[in-house]
Specification:
The complex is a heterodimer of chains A (about 120) and B (about 110). With about 120 residues, chain A is an all-beta fold. Chain A has no helices and eleven strands. Classes of the chains: A mainly beta (about 120), B mainly beta (about 110).
Chain lengths: ~120, ~110
């Protein structure tokens, strides 16, 4: 597709349930980012991939959060044993390279509500 | 720690007026900054960027100014239109990640 595609767009999970959020970056984009955005806040960095390598996962809030990009294209963000504080929009972004000057494009986000 | 922040959380302007949205950053080593626009229910949309070796960059109806001395960034929107109503974020690009401020909500009054 022409842009970054995320699915599902909306997810309601019961507390304790595991969820998986998918990101299809723009074709050919090497760099992929995941962000968490709480209501009324700016996006908070979670993790960064360059191809299949996860180079930075310093923003993952707990060991319940796990991200992968096994073939260097599609990425999945998995949240285990979801908690109410995990309710947020999860944004995926991609760029040609991680280097400065390459525009980073965002998807529309996956809206997660934990009840 | 290092942070990117905004001076004002909300800004209301009259249609046709110019808008100025400000941003302060604290990491003096940062050398790339980006402005994003986020409409309700959508992901952030790239507006304009600037590298630290520049102090001004212009796009279509938008201008970004960078003052490295005081670590300040601003976004100017000329002839603001109703479609400009959104939350605007400045972001600071590091070697790997990109950090956002909390955002300024711009409301354009007809």
């Amino acid at each position: 597709g022409a842009g970054v595609s995320q699915s599902p767009r909306y997810k309601v999970a019961k507390r304790g349930q595991d969820v998986a959020l998918r990101c299809d970056p723009i074709s050919g984009h090497v760099s992929l980012f995941w962000y968490q955005q709480a209501l009324g806040q700016g996006p908070e960095f979670l993790t960064y991939f360059q191809n299949e390598a996860q180079l930075d996962k310093s923003g993952l809030p707990s060991d319940r959060f796990f991200a992968e990009r096994p073939e260097g294209s599609v990425s999945t963000l998995k949240i285990q044993r979801t908690q109410q504080e995990d309710s947020a929009v999860y944004l995926c972004a991609s760029s040609l390279q991680g280097a400065i000057g390459n525009t980073i494009y965002f998807g529309e986000g996956s809206w997660l509500t934990v009840v | 720690g290092e942070s990117v922040g905004l001076h004002l959380p909300t800004l209301s302007v009259q249609e046709g007026d110019n808008s100025i949205i400000n941003c302060a950053y604290s990491n003096s080593a940062s050398d790339y900054f980006i402005w994003y626009k986020q409409e309700s229910g959508k992901g952030p949309q790239f507006i304009i960027d600037i590298r630290s070796n520049m102090d001004k960059r212009q796009g279509q109806r938008v201008t970004v100014l960078l003052n490295k001395t005081v670590k300040h960034l601003s976004l100017q929107i000329a002839a603001t239109q109703p479609g400009d109503s959104a939350v605007y974020f400045c972001a600071e690009k590091g070697a790997m990640d990109m950090r956002f401020g909390a955002g300024t909500r711009l409301t354009v009054k007809p």
